Amino acid sequence: MIKWILYLIFSLFNVMFVFASPAKHLCRPDQRDALWEFQSDFYFDEYKTKWWSNNTDCCSWDGVSCDPTTGKVVQLNLFDTNLQGILPDSITNLKYLDTLSLSGCNLFGKIPSSLGNLSYLTYLDLSGNNFAGELPDTMGSLIQLRDLLLHNNKLSGNFPLMLLNLSGLTEVNLASNQFQGMLPSNMSGLSGMNFFEIGENSFSGSVPLSLFMIPSLTVLSLRRNSFSGPLGIENISSSSKLSYLSLGVNNFSGPIPRSILNLVRLEVLDLSFWNTGRGMVDFSIFLHFKSLASLYLSYLNTRSIVDLSHFSHLTSLRELDLSGNNLKFSSTLHLPSSLSGVSLSSCNISEFPKFLQTQTNLNNLDISANQIEGQVPEWLWRLPRLQSVNISQNSFSGFEGSADVIQRSALYLYMLDISYTFQDPFPLLPNFTRFLFGSDNLFSGEIPRTICEMLALDTLVLSNNNFSGSIPRCFNNFNTSLSILHLQNNSLSGVIPKETISDRLRSLDVGHNQLSGELPKSLINCTDLEFLNVENNRINDKFPFWLRLLPNLQIIVLRSNEFFGPISAPGVSLSFPMLRIFDISKNRFTGILPSDYFAGWSAMSYETHIGYHVLIDFGGRDLEYHNSVALTNKGLNMELVGSGFRIYKTIDVSENRLEGDIPESISLLKELIVLN
Asked: Which UniProt keywords apply (predicted)?
């Protein structure tokens, strides 16, 4: 008994000793130093803090994963981290990496050739940055690479041949870049090369002469580039594992090759904007893809009329896009019940497609830019899974059905676009709509208060109508949900009610109205605000110094109002680290600007690639919505839309009553493009 008691005491002592002993760090010193060097190669200031500290095990740092036995850093996942700079060569000091994910990190410049030294890499994701130039030849040395994701950059040049050396690739995504030229052909009768040179690199072994011959490849996306010519896949093998092929929005031309039928495992096929030279297309070839789930054949430039009945036998089909083609269909047509997305924009349709009434799994519908007249049928709102509806650019007269059906159906509706299509009266709307686009119609009178009955409105765009009266105070119903409010170019009057300002607001545009009073100080609570435009109104207020407290503000347009007084104050540092457009012209601002006035305007001081746009997340997808604003450049008025916000960095303080010297700190704004 004593023996067992002593054993228990001894065991307890050992446990206490283990817990009392300091934990041993897994991280190796050389790996920690490599991470520190990588971090130190980026620029930091008071607005951008370092993401790693030195008082913990580096294997526990955000985005860092180590091998549990060796302590080597094997994974670095810093996606959506604001690194903001050039990818340094020091990344290769982390030589044991098998996974490197730096997507959405505001990186620019060229991809360094030293990246080819990371010989253990199996997964590389540099997507969503601003990398430019050609891919370095050394990437052909990454022979263990399986997944290569380089989409949404500015990469250029011909197709990077060195990728053909990477025989283990399973996914290649080069979409949304600036590549051009023809794809490498598999050259009839040849199965591959045994040796080839690129630049100063030599690669040996059996090398396929086409991406389509890489045996393990399952996903290939080259969408939105400038690749051209015929596809060159005449000898493609039926043993190909390719299940995802996206070639849309390029400059491919000629007939769609029948050899594509050998890709028997295809589940996603995108041939949008294929230039057939006004030739004929045999749409029956797509019937052979029994596993096809998504088919995108928009804008094929063909004389063929697309008979929708061709697709009724594709029982696995979920997404179908035939926009920009001439269609033929009957009211008795039955498409696969599995369809969740249908896009028939710009198809010269003159009546609402009745066959949609039976598509009970339909999530997303786009029939915009057609010639459909009459009322939107009541049965549309009864489709149980409907999430997104775009009926813009038609000639509808209203919504059919009772208020009860319209307002209380469509329980899952996220987005409704009725732009460019309606006249008065303003239609009743489904209450569950979150993103409402109703610009460029002929609506008049007051903004209908029925909008305030919506339950979770996130985006309201009613620009370019003839609305009058005041902005409804009942918009305070959305004070926890509204992120985009655009009422530009109407005839609205009165003040901007503070009740309408949601703390979640990201974009406010009430320009070109007849609004008066002061700029509501409740905007100070909108810490996500990026875009503020109140131009061409009658707002009478002092300069809103408190705007400097909004950390994400990129665009301020106060032009053509009745603002007055100084735009500087003793002891107030007017620092706008993210600002790229500052337009306070045509007001009554006065006073002298201190020499350091522009010292904290970081985004205009050095190269950044933040890029202003509004991304709306709905249904698991991102919808990009662009704002617009008027600028004066060399005495000419111009409208800035879309990608212009990524390019222009402007200051306009003209037609005020400022005096004294131009502040010396203007010389710090090295990225400034327009100064008025």
From this structure: Cell membrane, Glycoprotein, Leucine-rich repeat, Membrane, Receptor, Repeat, Signal, Transmembrane, Transmembrane helix
